[in-house]
Amino acid sequence: xxxxxxxxxxxxxxxxxxxxxxxxxxxxxxxxxxxxxxxxxxxxxxxxxxxxxxxxxxxxxxxxxxxxxxxxxxxx
Length: 76
Prior knowledge:
This protein is mostly helical. The protein has helices at about 15-25, 30-35, 40-55, 60-75; strands at about 5, 10. The protein has 4 helices and 2 strands, in the order ββαααα.
């Protein structure tokens, strides 16, 4: 599953998973523990997500998800 940010700039399934957890209000540390990865890994994914979604912070990411996430749930 991928969310189209820009042509050729899809969020990976893992990026989408992290973005949705962040949107629920979880801190990077909480996401890292939940997914059994390091906090640095979560932060690296967030940087990639921010670039692809052209946002600069978690609030902007939430707004972006509200606009684009339904496309991820539509399915085939």
